[in-house]
Write a structure and sequence with these properties.
This protein has a single domain, classed as Immunoglobulin-like (Sandwich). Helices cover 11% and strands 55% of the residues. This is Secreted protein. Keywords: Signal.
């Protein structure tokens, strides 16, 4: 009976056209990150080819830090395209860092990797690397 109820519930959600957005996607690509409790939300998810897409990256600073920039890289067919966004903002230990990046999702079909690298201001050291994959 419980299985039947679960199947009907899933069918009702799918039939309603409701998009289920995960709380967080992706994984760390950092050896030692200075930002913890990281979450990345991508809206809409799954991405719609050629449509506006917003990535919201959040996390808590493990120590006082001035974030200099965020490098956003997108890989398609072994070729990376990178954008650098300047931040230059001080964050106290425990403060939440939020970075919002909007772009039009790709239109070419295939597999993609997206990587966010948060860089420290004075040294450009990597203080967080977060990545996820998607297909169009």
């Amino acid at each position: 009976m419980k299985s039947l109820l679960l199947i009907f519930s899933i069918h009702a959600i799918l039939a309603s056209g409701l998009k289920v957005v995960p709380l967080a996607i992706g994984s760390s690509c950092s050896l030692f990150a200075d930002i913890s409790n990281v979450q990345l939300q991508v809206t809409p998810w799954p991405m719609v080819p050629g449509s506006p897409t917003t990535c919201t990256l959040t996390g808590s600073l493990s120590k006082n830090e001035t974030i200099g920039s965020v490098q956003i890289g997108q890989e398609y067919k072994s070729t990376w395209v990178n954008n650098l966004v300047t931040i230059n903002t001080f964050y106290a230990k425990g403060q939440t860092f939020t970075f919002i990046y909007s772009f039009n999702s790709p239109t070419q079909s295939g597999s993609y990797n997206e990587k966010f690298t948060v860089l420290q201001n004075s040294t450009n050291n990597n203080i967080l690397c977060w990545q996820f994959s998607f297909s169009i």
